[in-house]
Design a protein that fits this description.
The chain has helices at residues 6-10, 25-32, 53-62, 70-81, 87-92; strands at residues 40-44, 49-52. The chain is mainly alpha-helical and 105 residues long. A two-stranded antiparallel sheet has the order 1-2.
Length: 105
């Protein structure tokens, strides 16, 4: 997996120390495996645009995930987009609220 250029760190784009990987097309395709990149996981608040697997895979690559971890990422996104979670409410609140998913192993 290729790392983000030093220029990204110098510009403050990766100030938290977490992995940042440039999401090149080949890496995103590898993340997707046999999955349909145009498949939608649902509407993404607040604009309710379609949450396509291609975008989720690009974000997973950017975050340093490996293809074997992608099914967990997809499951987490499905859970966040479920009406019972109320993603619009957590994204539009004036209170300090942010979803966090930790996975290990």
């Amino acid at each position: 997996m290729e790392g983000f250029s030093d220029g990204g760190f110098a510009c403050g784009l990766a100030a938290d120390g977490l992995p940042v990987v440039e999401p090149k097309r080949a890496s995103v395709r590898a993340m997707l495996g046999d999955a349909d990149p145009e498949a939608s996981l649902g509407a993404c608040p607040p604009s309710n645009g379609a949450c396509h697997l291609w975008r989720v895979a690009a974000c997973a690559v950017l975050a340093g995930c490996e293809p074997r971890q992608f099914p967990l990422v997809v499951a987490a996104v499905r859970a966040l987009l479920d009406d019972a979670f109320n993603a619009h409410g957590t994204g539009a609140t004036t209170m300090g609220c942010a979803p966090l998913i930790l996975a290990s192993g």
